[in-house]
Amino acid sequence: MNEQLFILTSQKKKTNLVLHLLLCIPTLGFWAIVWIIVASVNHGKNARIDHKINSLMHYKSQGMNDNESYQQLKTDTSANNLATIRIVFVIIAVVFVYFALR
């Protein structure tokens, strides 16, 4: 359990604020666009990692051992990926039908 938490925690990304601020100065603020993109990508990744950590702790609190909680987390991740694929497929199908009937 501690290994899984350590691995998940070590995967978190931090945005180097000082570096981006220093790059904004010579580029007259244009680097702020890159800064915002990097910060939002890092935030999204960290939010997904936090969700995995919370799920893992929830399964542990229900009395699951390390292996069972890890397997449940894997099952949840697979189910979420499958749901995402289905949503994308439906969107593509709707767009295709829209343009086919146009």
Please explain how this structure is put together:
The chain has helices at residues 2-10, 17-24, 31-61, 66-101. The chain is flat. The chain has one domain. The chain has 4 helices and no strands. 82% of the residues lie in helices and 0% in strands. By secondary structure, it is an all-alpha fold.
In total, how many domains does the architecture comprise?
1
Major beta sheet summary:
none
Number of helices: 4
How many angstroms does the end-to-end distance come to?
A: 55 Å
Number of strands: 0
Nutshell version of this structure?
The protein has 102 residues and is mainly alpha-helical. The protein contains 4 helices and no strands.
Keywords:
102 residues, mainly alpha, 4 helices, 0% strand, flat
Architecture blueprint of SSEs:
Blueprint: H1 2-10, H2 17-24, H3 31-61, H4 66-101
Helix pairs in contact: 3-4
